[in-house]
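Dear colleagues,

I hope this message finds you well. In preparation for our joint manuscript, I am sending the GNAT family N-acetyltransferase (Streptomyces sanglieri) sequence together with its predicted structure, so that both groups work from identical material. I would be grateful if you could confirm receipt.
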Amino acid sequence: MTSTFPDISISTDRLVLRPFDMADVPAYIEMMNDELVVAWTEAPYPYTQVDAERWVRRIAPAQRTGGDGIVLAVTEFLTQRLVGSVRLRNTDWRTRATEAAYITAPWARGEGYATESVLALAQWLFRDQGFERIELRTAADNTASQQVAQKLGCISEGVLRNARIARTRTENGTDGGWTDIRTDLIVWGLLPEDLEGVAEQLADAGGYGAYNDWN
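The corresponding structure tokens are as follows:
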């Protein structure tokens, strides 16, 4: 049984989802130091050149080759500018289930890029990889991430209480201006049948399509 994802790129009308390369490092550092990214992810802060190079060269590729998932940079089709990232993790190859996570650069928010990229990845997973379930976990106060799940047709399945550490701004101290806080996680499930009609609805609402091709 296959236990790793192929080394792929996925194209939509507006986006290209592809493996990270070293040219992405400056934009990735900028994105990862954005306040909302710092607040809702577990990435190091401040996010440095060393962190970014380690991610691109070692950690992200190892996610795929080790069988845990896959990490893709999300770029604009026309400009090639990095708009975010999307990844699969905690993949269970026996049950064909995995967890999706996504980050959007601050300048690219409000354009529907996160929804478009996760939808493209989900369509590829269900149609071409034979997967049966995708799970999303969103912090209770991260309404933007929850809206992505809702637009995709995900079903809210429950709450994991006190399940993750997030970060919040502090007024002073030696912690770089951030302190850890506990947060609940909302668990969302997406099955193949949940995607029926979603791409068409998003296209009508936002003028963009989703999954077109992969190689």
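For the figure legend, we might mention the following. The longest strand covers residues 155-169. The helical segments are 25-32, 35-40, 49-65, 113-128, 143-151, 198-206.

With kind regards,
E.M.
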